[in-house]
Amino acid sequence: TRKLLRSHPDIKVVAVTVCEEDPFPTRLLQAGAAGYLTKGAGLNEMVQAIRLVFAGQRYISPQIAQQLAIKSFQPTNDSPFDALSEREIQIALMIVGCQKVQIISDKLCLSPKTVNTYRYRIFEKLS
């Protein structure tokens, strides 16, 4: 999201994802996404989100907004994923998606050794 917005500052990003659990919504919104929807959102909700974002507002699906609001009032139980950098989360998601090191390195323009270093750090941080 950050890279996209850096190269195209006028673009508006609306994330449509299956990731409902924090830290994913928080990180995407912090990275500059103007909207966040789950893949379960209906057509009307998607249209509403696009219209609001196009008008310069932000849109967060109600279930995500409620989850984020509740979390802000709860004492912090740090998620182990909070310790991961954005790149580590990106690589972790690719690993969980059964992508091989070479494919990950090709997609992210990294050497396989760098991907393995990230992989090691991820496993260390998540125990």
TrEMBL record:
MF terms (GO), sorted A to Z: DNA binding
Pfam families from the UniProt entry: GerE
Origin: domain of life: Bacteria
Entry keyword set: DNA-binding, Transcription, Transcription regulation, Two-component regulatory system
Chain ranges of the HTH luxR-type domain: 77-127
One GO term of the biological process aspect: regulation of DNA-templated transcription
Residues in Response regulatory domain copies: 1-54
Gene3D superfamilies (alphabetical): 3.40.50.2300
PANTHER family listed in its UniProt record: RESPONSE REGULATOR UVRY, TWO-COMPONENT RESPONSE REGULATOR
Name the record gives this protein: GacA
